[in-house]
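Sequence only, no structure available. Ideas?
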Amino acid sequence: MLSPITGKEMVVKKEWRKMTYRKEEFDILFHSWYCVDTKEEFEDEVFAELNYNQVVNQYREKYNIPFPDDIKNIREQYNLPAIRMAQVLGFGDNTYRHYESGEMPTQANARLIQMAADPNKFLEMLRLSDLHDDKQFAKAKSNVEKLCKQQVSDNEMILGRFFGEKMRDRFTGYSLPDFTKFKEMVLFFIIDSDVWKTKLNKMLFYADFVNYKYHNRSISGARYCPIDMGPVPDNFNTLFDILLKENVLDVSYHSFSDGGVGEKYTPLKSFDESMFTPDELEIMRNVKERLKNISTQDVIELSHQEKAWSKNRTNKSHPIDYSFAYELSLL
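Reply:
I predicted one. Tokens follow.
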């Protein structure tokens, strides 16, 4: 970006600052353009959004306020229009629609929305509402009753334990943990590629963290931990075992002269790119291209240079805060 004062190219400046949101201060890595000659800073639309999202993400995390996508998904599972959903919860007619569009709910309204996510609790809210004569009431009530009767599958219980709770925070990159999306990421990186398991873990890490670096969201919502060989998805062995049992992958083993054993996966299903946004696909392609000709050992060493690993290496079981993504050396 050119300086509006000197016309010369400016540099990107990053520094930790406190920003205020709803009368509270939050620490963010503030991004700006810096004019070396005049020592003035400029914030374009991209950096303004990046800085703002860091603040509101922390606010939502602190007060457990659902994100717009979550708010929309809660309503859609009951097949209710936004105006009816607002009426069931006792909001103004357009309030729920505004929340789906990004407006921050009050803490009190956030609690009601979270309660509505539970079909059993929402059924009671429906009964207490004044929509009994509305033609959409019976349809909504039928959908809720079906959801109440659904049983959680064995795999869902396993994934709930090993892929993480269904919540957004700084350790999931403020994305909802999505194992289906994680599975498709795995398929993307192993299709037409000769990738060892260790290198695959680094590709997943970089894709999620690079996406957060530019868009304030991870792709899969996976948590990553700093083991000796670099960042890896939390409980990665269990996650890959599930993919093997579901016939998503096949695995082959190779013994090395030092006594170690390497694992290499081949896909048994095709990759579904419809799961991803164009931005996510571009980042995944860039990560794959950047790392495809680098040896596994070199990828490990590259990941060891990242602060995401070096600043967290002493606590191997604790997930890595995605804010380290802003300091990645790759991409």
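The two ends are 18 Å apart (CA to CA).
Hope that gets you unstuck.
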